[in-house]
Amino acid sequence: MSTAPRPARPPPPIPKPGHVKVVRALYTYEAQQADELAFDEGDTLYILDMKDKDWWKAKCGRKTGLIPSNYVEENTESIDYPLHDAAKRGNIDFLKECLSNRVSVNGLDKAGSTPLHWASHGGHVNCMQILLADTKCEVNVQNKLGDTALHSASWKNHAAAVKMLLEKGARVDVRNNEKKLPVDLAKDPDVLAQLREAAGVQASRYTEDYEDEEDSD
Predict the structure, then answer these.
(1) How are the residues of the chain apportioned to helix, strand and coil, as percentages rounded to the nearest 5?
(2) Residues 156/188, Cβ–Cβ less than 8 Å
(3) CA–CA dist 129, 125 (Å, integer)
(4) Which of 55, 99, 202, 213 has the fewest C-beta atoms lying within 10 Å of its C-beta?
(5) What is the pLDDT of residues 148-163, one digit of tens each?
């Protein structure tokens, strides 16, 4: 039986951006028919269905209805990364609203970061808890710098955020583009201790898995 160490597991595939279009109304729209959606200036609209080129299905607050597509294009302001913005600012109410309106929990911004990256970077543990409660939330996504959410939390020395990520399966053996592990970015003693303990546990688990597979052969 081979005693070679188990190779590091590759990160999961990078998720695709979400497809829910989110805009903010610049003007008030009065519904003309019973199935249309009325909204006020400043309201946030979630465009749920764009199959009909003239009339799109949208949601505003708790109401859902049709709105003219040309109105959205000409009289609204696009919110490109609403869930990221909510996570970055620690805005729990907006974050919940985005998720309830099917904005992707794994959507990627221009930097290739997920909302979890930004919540971890800011140490917004309440937002992190909500994001991680979504069964689709990917913990080990790497952005364009190669950083995971754990890199972000470790770099900013957010001990509570690091603990939460580790409990949800964040890997400590992922290196970013500069070949640095999360532990290489941390300075806080509590964060360092958590990462080093997790490294030992995860390395032991991978070795046991490898030996179990060898025995089954």
Answers:
(1) 40, 15, 45
(2) no
(3) 6
(4) 213
(5) 999 999 999 999 999 9
